[in-house]
Design brief:
The protein is of the alpha+beta class. The chain has one domain: Alpha-Beta Complex (Conserved hypothetical protein from pyrococcus furiosus pfu- 392566-001, ParB domain), CATH 3.90.1530.10. About 45% of the residues lie in helices and about 20% in strands. The chain contains 6 helices and 5 strands; from the N terminus they run H-E-E-H-E-E-H-E-H-H-H. The protein has a 5-stranded mixed beta sheet with strand order 1-2-5-3-4. Helix 2 packs across helix 3 and helix 4 packs antiparallel against helix 5. It is globular, with a radius of gyration of 16 Å.
Length: about 150
Amino acid sequence: MVERRLGRGLDFFLSGSTEQASVGESVALLDVQALLPNPHQPRREFSAQELEDLAASIRASGVLQPILVRLVGGRHQIIAGERRWRAAKAAGLERIPALVREISDDQAAVFGLVENLHREDLNAIEKARAFKKIQELCSGNQEEVARQVG
């Protein structure tokens, strides 16, 4: 069993190992070209300038927070962190740190939508689509939507 502590430090990711984080989770360095984007990503527009700024930061300091992925049909699908993934590719990285989690299709959709809803730069249309999708996934239950979104 892995010792749980706040933060893993860069050495953890630089070692190149896959390690169990908790039940149903592992951490790995994944090939950026092999990852699949999240089909439930509410963000339809990615600012080229913001991605380039993030890519410059990644070139200087690396990826500071792992992306969240799950296995789908033998490939890793991004649940959260698509901007980091796109910027890592633009920065020329071959691998990106990722937390691999076993979760259902509905959970993956909700996680990705909620993560983006808490960002300030989604436009009104993207937010409306995200809320609508979460409501569909929660069978129209407004209390469940509120619980999921926070």
